[in-house]
Amino acid sequence: MIALLVRFVLGPLARALYRPEVRGVENVPATGPVLLAANHRAALDTGVITFATPRQVKFLGKAEYFVGKTLKGRLMAGFLGGLGYIPVERGNAQAGLAALEAARKVLDAGGVFAIYPEGTRSLDGRLHRGHTGVGALALATGAKVVPVALTGTENLQPEGARIPRLAKISITFGKPLDFSRYEGQDYAPAIRRSVTDEVMYAILELSGQEYVDTYHKRPSEGVA
């Protein structure tokens, strides 16, 4: 019920209020597994992707957001679930494997999963080196990878603002990338890196950001 509310009520309201510029939405395949790989500019990026994508999208979310016992906690969990979040633990290698497995289940079922290859949102506005999870998922599931560029979302809720503000934002969906040429090589680290770098370059072309070939340091808890 909450998922329907988010998709068919809150989504149209948000689009009418913020009037985001959406380009290339026809590049999102209508059926089959799709991996949306996006740059990450702001905490509200997930909502923007959810409201702009014609298909239901799943994301990973911190497990602690889903364990609240109070009414507020339950409402938060319900809302995040409606947005498409899947609760996962964070902070160690085992948690990282669980996150990839959760994403793989969505793609194996023919769904749409969104990932931020940088691993955290960019605090300096630049596009940073991608982690190879996006490559591992694309190779393991055969999903088409659609690069996504978000622009202006960092202005929706500047630091210290509790309520999102009106701002000019855009979201661009690039042409799907097909990595079937690497079938059977999903466990090769060099291939995962090659696929990831190709995805990051596609995002770079769409976003026009400055690229930095180093991983972005994860900000302190509560900032990402």
UniProtKB/TrEMBL annotation:
GO terms for molecular function: acyltransferase activity. Keywords: Acyltransferase, Transferase. The keyword Transferase applies. Coiled coil: none annotated. SUPFAM superfamilies: Glycerol-3-phosphate (1)-acyltransferase. InterPro entries: Plipid/glycerol_acylTrfase. This is Lysophospholipid acyltransferase family protein. PANTHER family: 1-ACYL-SN-GLYCEROL-3-PHOSPHATE ACYLTRANSFERASE. It comes from Amycolatopsis heterodermiae. It comes from the Bacteria. Residues 34-153 form the Phospholipid/glycerol acyltransferase domain. SMART domains: PlsC.
